[in-house]
């Protein structure tokens, strides 16, 4: 497992279609930022700001899928925001989903740095796809992944979702009580997609333990 630490500059936000969201957050005085989940060309983030975000503008942003204000005090407002980088191609979403994850983001006035975690081939393909989409990534560090030592850390977000859902429905019971079609119906995707996610997840989990 490898990790690439990369930086995205200000121009990348414009190219990705999230510049207005970044600007809106900064206008409210960003105190903290945490990525809760990453999926393809989108993410769910928790943002702490000094002042309430202009929620009418937040509603109007095409890049924002949904948002919720989860805490408010005299000196801090906290939001959970789900967004999609609308200007990025779907092909990049496919390659990004093969990563174990994009983690440890650091947001500053100069841009964002984050880690791409996965095989060397997957990381290289993701970087190439970003470059092809016009988003320049500045490689700061590349080497072995020394992050969380947990089996589920070996899986992509979609693989974890598929495995958890399959387990909850009884897919791994003996005898098996549901099929991939049942899991697919619960997730709202094709059964072939579920079968692929489960097969890749099982391969990665066995690789971790064996």
UniProtKB/TrEMBL annotation:
Keywords: Transcription, Transcription regulation. PANTHER family: DIMETHYL SULFOXIDE REDUCTASE TRANSCRIPTIONAL ACTIVATOR (PTHR34236). Pfam families: HTH_10 (PF04967). InterPro entries: HTH_bacterioopsin (IPR007050), WH-like_DNA-bd_sf (IPR036388). This is Helix-turn-helix domain-containing protein. The keyword Transcription regulation applies. It comes from the Archaea. It comes from Natrinema halophilum. Residues 155-206 form the HTH bat-type domain.
């Amino acid at each position: 497992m490898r990790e690439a630490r990369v930086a995205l500059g200000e121009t990348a936000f414009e190219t990705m279609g999230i510049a207005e969201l970044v600007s809106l957050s900064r206008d409210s005085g960003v105190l903290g930022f945490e990525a809760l989940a990453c999926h393809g060309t989108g993410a769910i983030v928790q943002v702490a700001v000094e002042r309430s975000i202009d929620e009418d503008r937040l509603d109007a942003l095409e890049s924002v899928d949904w948002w919720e204000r989860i805490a408010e005090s005299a000196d801090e407002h906290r939001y959970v925001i789900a967004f999609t980088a609308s200007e990025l191609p779907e092909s990049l979403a496919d390659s990004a989903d093969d990563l174990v994850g994009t983690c440890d983001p650091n947001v500053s006035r100069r841009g964002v740095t984050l880690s791409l975690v996965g095989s060397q081939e997957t990381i290289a393909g993701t970087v190439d796809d970003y470059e092809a989409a016009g988003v320049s990534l500045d490689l700061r560090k590349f080497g072995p992944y020394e992050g969380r030592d947990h089996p589920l850390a070996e899986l992509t977000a979609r693989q974890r979702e598929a495995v958890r859902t399959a387990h909850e429905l009884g897919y791994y019971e003996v005898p098996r009580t549901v099929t991939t079609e049942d899991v697919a119906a619960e997730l709202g995707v094709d059964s072939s997609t579920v079968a692929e996610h489960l097969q890749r997840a099982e391969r990665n989990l066995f690789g971790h333990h064996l």
